[in-house]
Fold these 2 entries.
Entry 1:
Amino acid sequence: MTDIGRPIEMLLVEDNEADIRLTEIALKHAKLANVLNVARDGEEALDYLRGQGKFAGAVRPDLVLLDLNLPKMNGAEVLKAIRDHKDLQSIPVVILTTSDADKDIYESYELHANCYITKPVDLKKFMGVVEMIEDFWVRVASLPPRD
Ligand SMILES: [Mg+2]
C-alpha cells in the first residue's frame, strides 16, 4: 500500500458538475487522507499537470481520474500528452467515462491507460466505484514513489 506520509494528490478531469460533487463526497469517506483537485476541461488538465498558468506551483498528482468527453481537448488527447511527457508519463491514469464503446476502451489501453471504467448511471453505484478506485489505487496498489 501507499504510505507516503502525506495526503494522496488526485486530479479529477471532469466537466460534469454532478459527477465532480459525487466524487468529492465519495472520497470524503476514504480511509487515507487525500486531496482532490479538479480540472474541468482538457486544456486545464494539462495546465495543471505542467504547473502552468493559474496552476503554477500545483503539486504533481499521484493519480489521475480522467473523463473522455471533455471540452477543448478530449480525454484521449490528454492521456496521449501525459504519456508523451517524460515527467508525467509514470502517473497512473484511470479512465472514468460514460462511454462503454469498444473503440474508446481499446484506444485508451493503446494509449497506456492503467484502467478503464464505465461510470455506473446509478448515483450510489457511481460513488461505490469511486471508493473502490481509491481503495485499490491507494490501499492495495503502490503508487509511483516521488523523488
Ligand atoms: Mg464529460
Note: The pocket of magnesium ion is lined by residues 15-16, 67, 69-70 (CB under 6 Å).
Entry 2:
Amino acid sequence: MKKIMLDAGHGPATPGKRTPDGSMREFEFNSAVADLAAAMLGAEGITVRLAHEAGRDVPLSERARKANTWGADAFISIHANAYGSGWNDANGIETYIYPQAQKQSEILAGHLQQALVAAGGRKNRGVKRQNFAVVRETRMPAALLECGFMTNKTEAALLKNTRYRRQCARAITFAVVNWYYGRGL
Ligand SMILES: [Zn+2]
C-alpha cells in the first residue's frame, strides 16, 4: 500500500500566520491544498493521512510521530511563505529538506519543486536545506513546501484563489506519482 502523510502547516488560530491585511490565514491555504491533494492522491490509489487537525495547531513533534507510527512512505508539509510582516516584493516557490536529508528526500523535493513552479508559473527559488522540526523528526523522505508569499500582493491573491490551490494540489499529486514511479513502484 502506498502511504502519504500530508501536513497543513500551523492551525486555524495560530497567531501571526496570515496576510498583512488579515484577509487570509495561512492555515486556510495549507489545509485547502491538503484536502484537494488528499482527494487527488486517493484517486491515484494512494492512501493519505493528515498530520494536522482543523480544530487546533498540532505540535510539530506530534505530526512527525503520527507519520513515523503509521510508517508513511513520505511526509509532505504544505505552507505559504512570508517575508517580514508587511507587503513587499519577495516572491516565488521554495521547497525545504533537512540539512542531512537522505537521497530520497532530495529526489522527492526536486519533483515537488519542479511541479509547483510549472503549475503556477511563479519564480523558482529552488530546493533548500533547513533544520525544520517536521523534516528532522520524520523517519521517511520529507519535504516542506512554500507555495508562494502571503506578503506579496500578487501571490496573496493567488493563495486565496481556488484555481491556484487546485494547481498546487495537482502539482503535489503529479510529483508524488512520479516519485513512486522513479522508485519502480
Ligand atoms: Zn507556514
Note: The mean pLDDT is 97.
